[in-house]
Amino acid sequence: MTTLVAIDGLVKNFDASGPAAIDGLTTQIKSNQVTGLVGPDGAGKTTLIRLMAALLTPSDGVIKTCGFDTRDTPEPIRDVIGYMPQKFGLYEDLTVMENLTLYADLRGVVDPQRKDTFERLLAFTDLARFTNRLAGALSGGMKQKLGLACAMLRSPKLLLLDEPSVGVDPISRRELWRMVYTLIGEGVGVVWSTAYLDEAENCAEVIVMNAGRVLYQGDPKAMTATMAGRVFYARGAGAERREGLARALQNPDIVDGVMQGQTIRLVTAQGAPPPTPEILGVAAPVEIVATAPRFEDAFVAMLGGASKRTLSAQARRPVDETDAPSVEARGLTRRFGDFTAADHITFRIHRGEIFGLLGPNGAGKSTTFKMMCGLLRPSEGAALVDGLDLAKAPSAARARLGYMAQKFSLYGDLSVRQNLEFFAGAYGLSGARRRDAVARVVDAFDLTPHLNANAGGLPLGFKQRLALAAAIMHEPPVLFLDEPTSGVDPLTRREFWATINAMVGRGVTVMVTTHFMDEAEYCDRVALIYRGKAIATGAPEELQARVRSEKMPNPTLEDAFIALVEESDRQREAAA
């Protein structure tokens, strides 16, 4: 094992008057292993990767990549590394093969080497069947595979992957990891930046960053072990579990807490006693038991714990399934030529319920979601919001909903305040109502320090806060969230869900798509979409119970997701 990247006293400033993006960092990256780069939004992960790739020049200090100084000899570095940026950096209007050909031209990969390289990479990524498909028409997982193939054209010594699994479903994430471990076996060193902390546990070593500094470097298992005796499950809170979690998080002895289906996971402060049922303040009898820590528990605790600045979750009235549904899909179908993207999908979402849409990339989940929001007209069936058909009364129905897109869809050249003022006007708010609405969301999402900053220059976490703030300014009774926390760090995700839970407590109905399986456990019910059909609908724990077996006695929701997709494939093959 050799040192691929040597960093000594590294500093990177983008603004002489502001804090450093990288502040006196000293570390090393080794060969023949995956080194995970983790940290909250704005920690400096992307900046560090770009410095390793010689795409940025240090303000001070030294960084050597594969023996070459990035300031003095950057050109040779580009011949020995592969770099996959956070955003899809290929050409969406070119096919898979055209993208590979273009990047082979740029990297100097010529015949006869080119033919062999293409065959090897297409087989490695399983893209040989899609060489004539436009890159823009690929699913999220397939786009990442194509990006990886282009990064691997020159058989690099060092592969730099900046959040390669953002927006990728669990099945595709496992495939990406399988491919990366194959590369490790061939002697490649990999740096994998990630917002999915379960992925950090797959790394041989992790570098935990915050504010441009290293907080920890070493074995992720050793970091997890520091949390022994500080993690507990609270079971039995039932319908009051969201309110109980909100109360527990206000206690100084609790540094973190999340929902896991019907269970609440609590993490105590160092030296604090085990929590008691009284900490939740719920009427139902609650049992509290110790459980094994995970890397995410240690990460959140290291960063000071979840924010105490959360909106309180008000007690919800019980969902009455005899009530008219707040959102309904009736035989929803969408065809694109001969291809059926969504096939007679039906479900009902009751008022004050969180309903999740899960599914692999390309399964029809986004198509279904867009029809439910009124962004796509169904070929058959109907989508209703508060009893209003989005096809027959689109304006009235849209006035009843708030929508947050997967990709940042606000105006990057406008300031935060200007975006909020614009969307308040677009929702028909004026005068005192408009001023009150803007002030309310600025306070709720802690946007005051950024009011005069251009939205396009905000860190990803603050972009997502701003997008959600704009979506709820008119206090809609129905909220549609399309992967609202994709790519943001766990602390920001917790703030999001505290806000969403508080809104649900006031009777708001939420429909959400997500690739975070732990996040899906916040939902009351989920629908699993696969090959255009809803193959399973129910509470998260019901889906887990469906796949429980001797081999898998305690399945996670991710286990259930993959098992149900595989079961659907077997049934399809048997029927063929």
UniProtKB/TrEMBL annotation:
Please name the Gene3D superfamilies in this protein's record: P-loop containing nucleotide triphosphate hydrolases
Instruction: Give the molecular function GO annotations.
Output: ATP binding; ATP hydrolysis activity
What is this protein called in UniProt?
ATP-binding cassette domain-containing protein
InterPro entries on file: AAA+_ATPase, ABC_transporter-like_ATP-bd, ABC_transporter-like_CS, P-loop_NTPase
Q: Which SMART domains match?
A: AAA
- Location of the ABC transporter domain: 5-236, 327-556
Q: Which family does it belong to?
A: Belongs to the ABC transporter superfamily.
Swiss-Prot/TrEMBL keywords: ATP-binding, Nucleotide-binding
**What is a single Pfam family found in this protein's UniProt entry?**
ABC_tran
Q: Which species is this record about?
A: Rhodoblastus acidophilus
UniProt xrefs under PROSITE patterns: ABC_TRANSPORTER_1 (PS00211), ABC_TRANSPORTER_2 (PS50893)
